[in-house]
Design a protein that fits this description.
Layout (H helix, E strand, L loop, with lengths): L1 E2 L3 E2 L14 E7 L8 H10 L1 E14 L4 E3 L3 H16 L7 H10 L2 E9 L2 E2 L7 H16 L5 H16 L4 E3 L2 E9 L2
Parallel strand pairs: 3-4
Antiparallel strand pairs: 1-2, 4-9, 5-8, 6-9, 7-8
Length: 184
């Protein structure tokens, strides 16, 4: 599932077993949005856990919340293109709202759910989260044939300008943090 240059790619199937069992806790961050069956992912996690074990999920609830102030046209277009590319390969960028049903249908009890969204400036350590993604994903969109080199350069140029402006505020994509306990 991991490709060092572009990050996660959806697996062909969810048939492989998880490499662990009898676990007390699991953490799933930005995985369900890429797999072809989030329901099957939750089932596999449940099968690998002890009763009473805790599963923590961090998944996008509203990816389109990723934006900048002041607004940047090409960055907004980039976000829309990212979402479309994930959907085209079987993923769902806004998967978090569907996880509640998958979890409860698999024997989990939701103990807590909170939205996580951050406002960061270029000098903030958390800026590295979107900055790192910007280093690789425009090329992925190019590789997929979704965009052309001129578009990629426009996006990167606009991002560099945002990064060079200390007054830029970036609002990160909204993530839902879900803490669920597997029923006894």
């Amino acid at each position: 599932m991991w490709n060092g240059r572009f990050g996660f790619r959806p697996p062909e199937s969810m048939d492989d077993s998880l490499p662990a069992s009898n676990m007390d806790a699991t953490w799933c961050r930005w995985v369900a949005c890429f797999v072809n069956s989030p329901r099957r992912l939750v089932e596999k996690i449940a099968a690998a856990m002890k009763p009473g074990g805790v599963a923590v999920f961090h998944e996008y609830v509203d990816y389109a919340t990723w934006q900048t102030a002041p607004p940047r046209t090409m960055l907004a277009e980039f976000v829309r293109e990212v979402m479309a590319s994930w959907r085209a390969t079987g993923g769902e960028p806004n998967i978090a709202p569907k996880l509640d049903g998958h979890l409860t249908n698999t024997g989990f009890v939701i103990r807590d759910a909170r939205p996580r969204v951050f406002c960061v400036r270029p000098r903030d350590h958390m800026w590295q989260w979107p900055s790192t993604f910007m280093e690789v994903y425009p090329d992925r969109l190019l590789e997929l044939g979704r965009v052309d080199p001129t578009w990629v350069e426009s996006v990167l140029s606009e991002f560099r300008a945002a990064e060079a402006d200390p007054t830029t505020i970036m609002i990160t994509p909204m993530v839902l943090e879900i803490v669920a306990e597997l029923s006894q």
